[in-house]
Amino acid sequence: MKAVLIGPVCWDVNISPKGTTQGIGGVPFYLGYALTSILGPRDESRIDYLVSCGSNDKELIDQLGEHVYLVEAEGTITCENESSGENLEERIQRINVPEGNIIFNRDLRVYDFSEADYIIVGPLFHDNIPTSTFFALSRYDVPIVLLGQGMIREKKGEQVVHFTPDTYGFLENIDYLILDSEELKMMAGRQDELSAVNGLRRNGVKNIIVTKGPGGSDLYFQEGWHHIPAFSPEELECTVGAGDTYAAGLLFALNLGYDPLRAGYIAAMTATMKIERKGPFIGTFNDVLFRLAKEGIDLPNLYDT
Hints:
The chain is α/β, with parallel strands linked by helices.
């Protein structure tokens, strides 16, 4: 599997009753780290990055590996996530967003996207990836995956607010759109999930994945709908990056040839194993299959064939 991840990396500060951690964050980090772990050291596998951060924070990208293309920004986004109660999903977020953290279509020239199995786009805010960049990426015959939370977020004063976009040009060539249920309804400007899905599909999205934390997830694929149950973690440590890790497990499984239902099981268990520890997912595919088997879900290992 070969994939390229596009978006900003950030400084993450995660505060909870279990302690405080800080370090690199952002979709490229959590998703890319999970993919690298689950893929293992195979010569035919490669995860590349086209990321932005401030010129004074280049040490952040050292944690991404060798295949990194840096777009220097005026500064690095800082995300502080504070959970004060037992529900780690409920958190206060404080964010510092420097101006000019944008990946333009001209920045794509450094990379040959035609060799990738997936182009994975993960903005933190709506202006990190302009619509023109999405159009430029669509010229390649490669599936585009959008983790869409950032496309409905902006900074107003000291507050991070969510909004419904006025236009949906960025969705026209998206093969997989991944959002949680509230983000889905906000992006579509609808009050219920199904009408939101149908509305976004009319704007060009092929497949929509809706995550719901303990409520599981729903896969609205072109070939049909699947509900994936959530699995209970052995211990709940940190939910930051869980959605990105779910996406990693899903794309890995689909690329191997699992059908959407089985790929959804793999995605859900990968995310479950991530929230059992602070930091990114560090398990293997055999670890995921073992945990699924303990839940009574026995899947063939297509990665060994």
